[in-house]
Amino acid sequence: MKIPLIDLGAQHQPLMKEINSSIKEIFENSSFIKGPTLQKFEKEFAKFIGTKYAVGVASGTDALHLSLMALGIGPGDEVIIPVNTFISTAYAALYVGAKPVFVDIDENTYNVDVNMIEDKITKRTRVIIPVHLYGTPAQMDKILSLAKKYNLIVIEDAAQAHGSCFKNKKAGTMGNLAAFSFYTSKNLGACGDAGAITTNSRKMADLLIRLRDFGRLSHTQYSEVGINSRLDTIQAAILSIKLNHLNRWNEKRRQVARYYHLKLEALNIPGLIVPQISKDCLPVYYVYTIRCKKRDKLAEYLLSNGVQTGIYYPLPLHLQKSLKSLGYKKGDFPITETVSEEILSLPMYPELTHSQQDFVIKAIMDFYAKN
């Protein structure tokens, strides 16, 4: 049996008739950039998240970058982010000339350790970017309290958290702005790169709409220096179709996760830890990540038996060559460094069957019986 980490074919197959019809209509109208199809998706996504506005952009990275641009963040400013995240969270700060300041993670949730944030705040701190890693929200109440105390801006990195909730509030509604990615593998994924920014501010939404299009006021007039980061119409149409299924897909992911929990915990394998979810959180399981001993050997064994896995992320940001100029070194973030050597993401997608999960679980059991 071959079990991929994610099976996009299984997701797309039942949607192909509707997707092809939408793409055909776009080709017939030759409306490939902006226009009513994009506006329709933006309104639908804002309604789904629970904000007044959503602004479609070219990627999740651009969503972060444009958010910082719109807020006037620049040289001399500091942006606090968790050290255990995808590298674009840090790059977005660098793109505007600001300095990313890393914080270690909570060993149970793998999200930023909110108790460590305050010590990182300086006179230069302007923004906190909490990352809702793996589809589980960060502890936003404590983060928002710190932001209020120090007059800071909060940008949610919700790239992996479409539909997740913290204390009944959806990811993307709690900060000043929120950045979403629609990369192909995400819970709501395009068929290429795409992203969005959510906000309740009309002024901010209008500014972002200009900034994503070179700072354009009209066809020939420009009010700000912007970038080229438009969400194209074909991706918007596909996302509109998929959005109708997202709640159902997220619930299926939670069912898959519950089955993994039940079966893996019953194995009583020393050192194997299933995801720890706070009662305040409703996760959407972008990935299902365990901690385990002999991680690399287990991953090799699973692959040799047809099971694909992933690691998010094997090398923490402070040890990346491209971020060496920030001055961090090995040992600065011990929890992240330990966790990064033990985390392993198992196959996770709404269409995953119990028989497929049983195959994965048996392979894990067999590995530890032999090792």
Strands, helices and their partners?
Elements: H1 8-12, H2 16-29, H3 36-49, E1 53-57, H4 60-70, E2 78-82, H5 88-95, E3 99-103, E4 125-128, H6 140-150, E5 153-157, E6 165-166, E7 169-170, E8 177-181, E9 195-199, H7 202-211, H8 233-243, H9 246-267, E10 281-282, E11 288-291, H10 295-304, H11 334-340, E12 343-346, H12 354-370
InterPro entries: DegT/StrS_aminotransferase, PyrdxlP-dep_Trfase, PyrdxlP-dep_Trfase_major, PyrdxlP-dep_Trfase_small
Organism: Candidatus Daviesbacteria bacterium RIFCSPLOWO2_01_FULL_40_24
Family: Belongs to the DegT/DnrJ/EryC1 family.
Any overview of this molecule?
The protein is an alpha/beta fold and 371 residues long. It has 2 domains: 8-104 and 111-243, 3-Layer(aba) Sandwich (Aspartate Aminotransferase, domain 2), CATH 3.40.640; 246-370, Aspartate Aminotransferase, domain 1. 38% of the residues lie in helices and 13% in strands. It has 12 helices and 12 strands. The strands form 3 sheets. The protein has a 7-stranded mixed β-sheet, with helices on both faces. Strands 7-6-10 form a 3-stranded antiparallel β-sheet, with no helix packed on it. The chain has a two-stranded antiparallel sheet with strand order 11-12. Helix 6 (140-150) links the parallel strand 4 (125-128) and strand 5 (153-157). Helix 3 runs parallel beside helix 8. The longest helix has 22 residues, at 246-267. The relative contact order is 0.16. The model has no long low-confidence stretch (mean pLDDT 97). It comes from Candidatus Daviesbacteria bacterium RIFCSPLOWO2_01_FULL_40_24. Belongs to the DegT/DnrJ/EryC1 family. One of its GO terms (molecular function) is pyridoxal phosphate binding. The active site is at residue 186. This is Erythromycin biosynthesis sensory transduction protein eryC1.
